[in-house]
Amino acid sequence: MAVSEQAGTEAPGAGRRPPSPWRILNPVRGQIRLAMAISAGSALSALGVMVSLTLVIRALLDRPEIMPWGPLGAAALCTVAAYAARLGAFNQAHYAAFRLERILRIGLANRLARVSLGYVEAQGAGALAKVIHDDVKALHVFVADSTPLYARAYVTPVVTFALLWLFDWRLALVALAVLALGWGILRGAQRRRRDMVRAYNAAREKVSAAVVEYVQAMPVVRNFDSGQSSFGRYQAALDGYLAVMLDWYRAAGFPARFSWLMLGPMPTLTLVLGAGLWFSAMGDLSVPRWLGVLLACTGMAEAMMPMMMLRHMIEKVGLSVARIEEVMAAPDLDEAGAMPPGPLAFDPAAPALRFDRVRFSYAPDLPPALDDVSFEVARGSVTALVGPSGAGKTTVARLVPRFWDVTAGKIEIGGHDIRKIGAGRLMQQVAFVFQESFLFADTIAANIRIGRPEATEAEVIAAARAAQAHDFITALPQGYETRAGERGVFLSGGQRQRIAIARALLQDRPVLVLDEATAFADPENEAELIAALSELMRGRTVIMVAHRLATIRDADQILVFERGRIVERGRHAALVGQGGLYARLWQNYETAQNWSLGAAREGI
Ligand SMILES: Nc1ncnc2c1ncn2[C@@H]1O[C@H](COP(=O)(O)OP(=O)(O)OP(=O)(O)O)[C@@H](O)[C@H]1O
């Protein structure tokens, strides 16, 4: 399951609480503590203003003819200090947030560089990019805006209560009772909140999945579906979302609003005012004290609000933390047994590539996708993998660049177990061109240069020429400097493939893995693609998956897979002669070819 889906609805661990954000803040803990301390100082200074003003009033009531400069000056000083400290706290928190953002992004990028490519593929590039971007951003917002509030939210009510107690313990208890009542009702209203949040997230995910499906499937929808079933799914998701929202509103509505009202300053003020009137009428409360209580208790009620908001923010940011921690905990490619760095001597007598009793399962509870697969690929030869859908061909191709590691057995390059070579050195040996050729949002030239940034312009052009890409590249608006990839120029699947081939040519690595490299090609493109591939394959050790059997007729070795095992092996003519699975596949292929041209025309 992809990262985003997991944390969005069920996981991390259905029904479990999202983790606390504090642990992940460790790298900037010191600075956050500093921000909190300064913020607490600001809260105390604000209370100092209240106390000073109370002293001013008391002094004026006692001796109205003398201006109480001392308490007035203290009030002014405390006001300035409160604002300065507040600003300082937010500055510190923002610095910490920027530092944390950088640390987490670098950490996540480093992690992804070390995990297996299979993990990245399984999670989906989009979901991982969302973690690096959106979830880290959510933490930034939390640190920058919430941590100073946090200190204030806890310091202010406690210190205010102490002050109230000093002024008049009876009125302090009245204020506390009102707030406790509001708090109690709110907690009651929030008891169902976690379930509600989960139902809400699930409903929201369903809506976005339905939207994505509806938009992505638009061509299919228009052709076959007239929009009925996918739009129906979208509508059902929307209805579900509405039902959850209404349910939530009904369940939490009244108590929540009532408790917010209770936690506002008015109820506390009214009761303290009433109680104060009564006490002073009984001659039990001096006016300055009463005023002091009134001034302070508004602050106490107000301070409760951020507490509620912060609880909500912590729960929300917890989901982002869960997703970040999940990526951070992704297993490393096993590099423990890797040989020390330095040039590697390959055994010239060993085959270029060897699978030795390889067994591989995608997960411990899944049946093996490959079982007891052994073969050798001689240096400079071409090995083709064929077989029915799901037979394991792609899995073989992806085990070579270590998308995943074998479950049992081993894969060797030049006599070395690929797990021991180390990922970096392995990549110097193996180039791969897979079904989807990814182009970065950069110029075409930069995209070709990716494996060898130091390549000269002449080398880039030579590689593009050999890959049959030069002509269409020069026809683009800015030639090699045209931007490709996201929001760049639109390139067809076959053109992207040829750029990927030019890239692989420039990388000039001895072992080449091709998976379905001609899958995207239209008939005009195909001839060019095959020419490009022949250029790429020249002199290299090639292992290729191809559905178009014509492209592998001349392969030095054909391995026929069925249900994860090699069932036949040999050259084309011999295999056709055997009359087994390959012969059947070949016959089907030929029939399909003839049908596509001849029968289809007759049909029209
Ligand atoms: N990421 C994955 N997770 C779990 N199982 C997988 C995964 N990828 C492939 N499989 C399973 O492993 C088996 C072999 O799949 P593989 O893609 O290697 O077959 P293939 O011969 O390349 O098929 P095709 O010609 O249709 O591409 C299949 O049963 C497939 O369902």
- Strand order in the largest sheet: 6-7-8-3-9-10
Strand content: 5-15%
Mean pLDDT: 80
Q: In whole angstroms, how far apart are the ends?
A: 45 Å
CATH architecture assignment name of the largest domain: Up-down Bundle
The overall number of domains is 2
Broad CATH class of the largest domain: Mainly Alpha
Low-confidence stretches: 1-15
What characteristic shape results from the CA principal axes?
elongated
Question: Which fold does the CATH topology of the largest domain refer to?
Answer: ABC transporter transmembrane region fold
List cofactors, ions and other ligands. adenosine-5'-triphosphate
Number of strands: 10
Taking the sheet with the most strands, its summary is: 6 strands, mixed
Per CATH, the superfamily of the largest domain is: ABC transporter type 1, transmembrane domain
Radius of gyration: 35 Å
Distinct helical segment count: 21
Notes on the protein architecture:
The chain is α/β, with parallel strands linked by helices and 604 residues long. It has two domains: 3-209 and 237-328, ABC transporter type 1, transmembrane domain (ABC transporter transmembrane region fold), CATH 1.20.1560; 353-597, P-loop containing nucleotide triphosphate hydrolases (Rossmann fold, 3-Layer(aba) Sandwich). It has helices at residues 3-8, 29-62, 69-114, 117-123, 125-167, 169-190, 193-216, 218-225, 228-263, 265-281, 287-328, 393-399, 418-421, 423-429, 444-449, 457-466, 470-474, 493-507, 523-537, 572-578, 581-603, and strands spanning 353-360, 370-377, 382-386, 408-413, 416-417, 430-433, 511-515, 541-545, 557-562, 565-570. The strands form two sheets. Strands 6-7-8-3-9-10 form a six-stranded mixed β-sheet, with helices on both faces. Helix 2 (29-62) runs antiparallel to helix 3, helix 6 (169-190) packs antiparallel against helix 9 and helix 18 packs parallel to helix 19. The two termini are 45 Å apart. Adenosine-5'-triphosphate binds at residues 122, 362, 366, 369, 387, 389-395. Residues 122, 362, 366, 369, 387, 389-395 line the site of adenosine-5'-triphosphate.
